[in-house]
Specification:
The protein has 154 residues and is mostly beta strands. Helix content is 8%, strand content 50%. The strands form three sheets. The protein has a seven-stranded mixed beta sheet with strand order 3-4-5-6-7-8-9, covered by helices on one side.
């Protein structure tokens, strides 16, 4: 609730917790996608608020380097980004997490590796599917209709 600066956590249809949150606040997965919208450059760092569990933490994100990486979709130039919570949370300072995203917008997520309290996680892209071109060409947006070139949009 932006007006009151609170977030509510639910489980099995019942409210579990209310958290005081600064606006804006993201969840951990949303933070990964938010990173893709930032003006990424080697040496830059960013800080924003992320809710993990029943707490809100400042997440610090550093763009460490730019490098070529081999992926299932080919060799791609990527930014190597390190997200870290200042204190606690899924990406805590105790473990290390690294995210690789393409250098070109929309900074497609290529790989994520993370040392977590219960083990480690590595996920890599296997395929990238761009939006159907007809959707992008439509005068009416993604709501459907015919594009100027006669193709159908959905």
């Amino acid at each position: 609730d932006l007006a009151t600066g609170t977030a509510r956590r639910w489980k099995n249809g019942r409210e579990r917790d209310r958290l005081t949150t600064p606006a804006p606040v993201l969840d951990t997965l949303g933070a990964i996608y938010f990173i893709r919208t930032l003006p990424l450059e080697v040496g830059k760092s960013f800080t924003f608020s992320v809710q993990s569990g029943n707490r809100v933490y400042p997440m610090q994100v550093a763009v460490l380097e730019r490098r070529m990486v081999k992926t299932a979709i080919g060799k791609v130039e990527a930014f190597v980004v390190e997200p870290r919570f200042a204190d606690g949370g899924l990406f805590s300072a105790k473990g290390k997490s690294v995210i690789w995203v393409t250098t070109e917008p929309p900074h497609t997520l290529l790989r994520i590796s993370s040392e977590l309290p219960f083990g480690s996680l590595v996920a890599s892209v296997t395929e990238v599917e761009r939006p159907w071109p007809g959707v992008l060409e439509s005068e009416r947006g993604s709501g459907g209709g015919a594009a100027q070139n006669g193709s159908q949009t959905r």
